[in-house]
Design a protein that fits this description.
Structural class: mainly alpha
Mean pLDDT: 96
Number of strands: 8
Low-confidence stretches: none
Order of helices and strands: EHEHEHEHEEHEHEHHHHHH
């Protein structure tokens, strides 16, 4: 990053912003999203829910639109409902037609963020005039080969919800299959090796195996701490099911998956932990 670049940040948890500002002189803490927007040419946001995105952007006194964002580049990396995404996009387009707003949700979680290997799903076409600029910016945080133009506005978000629906189901299936084999006498690492060498091979089993001790760096091997929280998976999985209903896509496993993540989110043994804690929720052996 060039030496003259300044980074303006705002977070509702002020101690997070303060801690980051102490790590580098490039960072200046702001008191609102409006102040960030006033001082920045490029605005990136990432918050948990659609209501938060609406607040960050659409608040008439403290939000992004309270500043003049003409000709600015805005990138929202949140995973949220389509209605909120479209509401923000439409209002920005109406009030600031020269501003460019993109959805760009991420995959990889805290582990990917720490390693700079995040994947970004961009809501734009492959010939978007800002694509090379977006790829350069997001490449500072992720893997350049995993920055994918998904075809148009909101399609990055659609891709992310589809991905998390599939990832969530694979995690449940991996947990169930590991539990079957282990209860039948198979060693957990041997079983994971079988999956890796066979048609059941998948990223969850290989890198984020829900059984403690299979993957040393996986959250499951650290008491399910870190990673992608089960409450966030419940949210994203629910948004994916809602999207399927909206577009008329028939789901066979959707309701079962959603009920599993709801149950795990409400289970005191699982609350606040990585989403692969569904293995514990399903009664898997952790010893």
């Amino acid at each position: 990053m060039p030496s003259h670049v300044r980074i303006y940040i705002f977070d509702v948890v002020k101690k997070v912003s303060d801690e980051l500002s102490r790590q580098t002189q490039k960072v200046q803490v702001c008191s609102s999203a409006k102040e960030v927007a006033e001082n920045s040419d490029i605005i990136l946001t990432m918050v948990p829910e659609g209501s938060h995105v609406r607040s960050v952007y659409l608040d008439s006194s403290e939000g992004v639109i309270a500043a003049d964002i003409s000709n600015k580049l805005l990138i929202d990396c949140s995973t949220i409902d389509m209605a909120s995404n479209q509401a923000v996009r439409e209002l920005i387009s109406a009030e600031f037609p020269t501003a460019a707003f993109y959805d760009a949700p991420v995959s990889g979680g805290p582990l990917g963020a720490g390693k700079g290997s995040l994947a970004f799903m961009l809501g734009c076409t492959g010939n978007d005039p800002n694509l090379s600029r977006l790829q350069h910016l997001l490449g500072m945080m992720g893997d350049p080969e995993k920055i994918i133009a998904c075809g148009g506005p909101s399609l990055g978000l659609t891709a992310k919800l589809s991905n998390n629906y599939l990832s969530g189901l694979i995690a449940i299936a991996t947990a169930e299959a590991m539990n079957i084999g282990m209860r039948s006498g198979l060693d957990k690492k041997v079983l994971a090796s079988v999956f890796h060498a066979s048609t059941a091979q998948n990223c969850i089993s290989d890198r984020f195996n829900p059984v403690p001790g299979v993957c040393p760096e996986a959250p499951s091997s650290n008491g399910y701490h870190g990673g992608f929280k089960v409450e966030l998976m419940r949210k994203d999985f629910g948004l994916a099911v809602d999207t399927a209903n909206r577009v008329g896509a028939k789901l066979v496993l959707g309701q079962a998956g959603l009920e599993t993540y709801r149950g795990a989110s409400d289970d005191p043994r699982c609350k606040g932990l990585d989403s692969r804690v569904v293995y514990r929720y399903l009664g898997g052996e952790e010893g």
